[in-house]
Amino acid sequence: MSMTPANEPTFRESVDLMFNRAVALMDLPPGLEEKIRVCNSTYTVRFGVRLRGQIRTFTGYRSVHSEHMEPVKGGIRFATSVNQDEVEALAALMTYKCALVEAPFGGSKGGLCIDPREYDEHEMEQITRRFAYELAKRDMIHPAQNVPAPDMGTGEREMAWIADQYARMNTTDINARACVTGKPLNAGGISGRVEATGRGVQYALREFFRSPDDKKAANLAGSLDGKRVVVQGLGNVGYHAAKFLQSEDGCKIIGIIEHDGALFNEVGLDVDAVRDWIVKHGGVTGFPDAAHTAEGASVLESDCDILIPAALEGVINLTNAKNIQAPLIIEAANGPITAGADDILRGKGTVIIPDMYANAGGVTVSYFEWVKNLSHIRFGRMQRRQEEARHQLVIDELQRLDDMLGDAWSMTPDFKEKYLRGADELELVRSGLDDTMRIAYQSMREMWHSREDVQDLRTAAYIVSISKVAASYRAKGL
Ligand SMILES: NC(=O)c1ccc[n+]([C@@H]2O[C@H](COP(=O)([O-])OP(=O)(O)OC[C@H]3O[C@@H](n4cnc5c(N)ncnc54)[C@H](O)[C@@H]3O)[C@@H](O)[C@H]2O)c1
Questions:
Q1: CATH of 41-192, one of 3.40.50.10350, 3.40.50.720, 3.30.365.10, 3.40.50.10860
Q2: Is residue 252 annotated as involved in ligand binding?
Q3: What is the ipTM of this complex?
Q4: pLDDT digit string (tens) for the chain, length 478 residues
Q5: What are the strands of the beta sheet with 261-264, ordered from one edge?
Q6: 41 labelled ligand-binding
Q7: Annotated catalytic, 109?
Q8: Ligand 1 pocket: which residues have CB below 6 Å?
Q9: Domain Glutamate/phenylalanine/leucine/valine/L-tryptophan dehydrogenase C-terminal, which positions (predicted)?
Q10: How many Å lie between the centroid of ligand 1 and the Cα of residue 75?
Q11: What is the pTM of this model?
C-alpha cells in the first residue's frame, strides 16, 4: 500500500524524478535517456475464479521495464493496493538494481490486487495458479524471458505453485524450474534464498561501517555493535535483517513498527519473540515488555542510529521527513522515501543507502538459483573434490556427536548427506552474496566520493546502473 500523500508525486513519478536527477549529471546520447527511463510494457489481466460457490474477479499486472538483458526479472506482489503505477515503479527499480549488482537481467515486476488473509490455502493455490497460467501463456513467466520471484505477500509457497503451473503447461521444457526463483529447497530452490534480502541489508550495513568517511558523513562512529535500530515491517526482509543485526552484529533493535502499531523498548526488543508473537496474534499489539503505540508511523521519527524501513513505499514523505532523526536510513523496502522527502533528508545531511542497492540481496541469490536450475547440477558440486577433505572433518565431527548422543539422537545417512549438501550450498551462496554487496557498494561509493556534483549514494547508484544499461544498449543496439 503506497503511503504517499496525494499532494506528492506518485511512486513511479518519484522514481523518474530520482532518475532525472542522475541523468542530468551524465552525458547520454540524445534519446537514450528517455529509452532507458520509460517502462516498455505493462500487461493487465482480469480473470475469474470460482470460490465458495461464487465467481470472483481478480486484477493482476506484469510490467516489463527494460529488456536490455533477458530474461527480465522481478517479484510478484500480492496486496490490495497493487496498481499499474506501483508495478511500473517497482519494475524500473528492478532494472537499475540488477544493473548495479551485475545480475544479468532486465527489469520486471508483477502484482495481484488481493488480500491474501481473506483466503485459505486451497483458495490461494487456485488463485495463484490461475494468475500464473494467465502470465505463462503470454510468456510472462518463462525461464528465458521473464522470471518472477517473491515480494510482499508472496513467498516460497506461491513460487512452488507458479513453478508447477508453468511445468504443467510446458511439459517438454527441461529448464522449467528456472521459470521462477524463491522456490522451496525441495522444489528446485537454493539454500539461503528466504533470508537473502535481509542478509543483504546486513552485509550492506557492514560494508558501510567499514568506511570511516561514510560513517563520518552520517555522524556515526565505531562499529555496528550497540547501534540503536528501528525497523518498519517484520516480514521477510525486515525480520531477517533485524534478526541478523541483533544476533550477529550486536545491534539493539529498539523499535519495531508493524501494521497495527509499534513497539518500543530502549533496552532492545527480542526480534524472534516479536516475530513469534506476530505469527500467533496477527500483529504486535499486546506484546509484553515493550511500550506499544497505535500510531506506528510516529516511531519512524524516534531518536535512533539506523532506521530500516522494510515494509511499504512512500512511508517517509513530505509530512514527516523533517522530523526524522536517524542519521542513517537503509531502504530495505522499495521506494520508502518519496522524492520530496529525499530532498529534505539530503538537505539535513541524512545518509540514505538506497533501495536499489540495499535490497539487492534477493535478486542476487535468485540469480544463483536460476543458474543452479539451468545448470542442472547441485550448486557447489563442482567444488566438491577440493572440499572433500574438509567435508571429511565435518562427517567425523557428526559421527562423534552421533556416538556421544547415542539413542537420544540418531544420524541417518540421509541426514548426513543433506547436512553436508546444505552447508555446502549455503556457504557458497553467502560468500557470493557478500562479494556482490561489497563490490556494488564500492562502485556506488567511488562515484559518490570522486565527483563533486554527486552528493549522495542514491544519485551515485543511479549513475552507475544507468551507465551499465546504456552500455548494454550501445553494444547490442535497441
Ligand atoms: N521478499 C524479497 O525478497 C524482497 C526483495 C527486495 C525487496 N523487497 C521489498 O521489501 C519490502 C517488504 O517485502 P517483504 O517481502 O518483506 O514483504 P512481507 O509481506 O514479507 O512483509 C511485509 C511486512 O510489513 C508489514 N506491514 C504492512 N503494512 C505495514 C504498515 N503500515 N506499517 C508497518 N508494517 C507494515 C506486514 O505486516 C509484514 O510483516 C517491499 O518493499 C518489497 O518490495 C522484498
A1: 3.40.50.10860
A2: no
A3: 0.99
A4: 556 777 899 999 999 999 999 999 999 988 999 999 999 999 999 999 999 999 999 999 999 999 999 999 999 999 999 999 999 999 999 999 999 999 999 999 999 999 999 999 999 999 999 999 999 999 999 999 999 999 999 999 999 999 999 999 999 999 999 999 999 999 999 999 999 999 999 999 999 999 999 999 999 999 999 999 999 999 999 999 999 999 999 999 999 999 999 999 999 999 999 999 999 999 999 999 899 999 999 999 999 999 999 999 999 999 999 999 999 999 999 999 999 999 999 999 999 999 999 999 999 999 999 999 998 887 765 555 555 655 666 666 666 666 665 554 444 555 455 445 544 788 888 988 999 999 999 999 999 999 999 999 999 999 999 999 999 998 887 7
A5: 291-293, 261-264, 252-258, 228-232, 306-309, 328-330, 351-353
A6: no
A7: yes
A8: 150-153, 197, 232-238, 257-259, 296, 310-312, 332-334, 359, 362
A9: 190-477
A10: 12
A11: 0.91
Q: Do the Cβ atoms of 44 and 84 come closer than 8 Å?
A: yes
- How far, in Å, is the centroid of ligand 1 from the Cα of 185? 22
In the chain, where does the domain assigned CATH 3.40.50.10860 lie?
41-192
Q: CA distances (Å), 125 to each of 30, 261, 282, 404, in order?
A: 47, 30, 21, 45
The response to whether 73 counts as a known ligand-binding position is: yes
**Closest C-alpha residue for ligand 1 atom 19:** 152
For ligand 1, atom 3: residue with the closest CA:
362
**CATH class of the 196-358 domain in this structure:** alpha beta
**What is the CA(176)–ligand 1 centre distance, in A?**
28
Separation of CA 151 and ligand 1 centre (Å):
7
* Protein residue with least CA distance to atom 14, ligand 1: 152
The x, y and z cell numbers of residue 170, run together, are: 510446458
Q: Can you read off the three cell numbers belonging to residue 156?
A: 516460497
**Total length of the chain:** 478
Distance CA 322, CA 343 (A): 10
Starting at the edge strand found earlier in the chain, the sheet holding 54-66 runs: 41-51, 54-66, 106-113, 72-79, 146-150
Question: Has 57 been labeled as part of a binding site?
Answer: no
DSSP state of 28: P
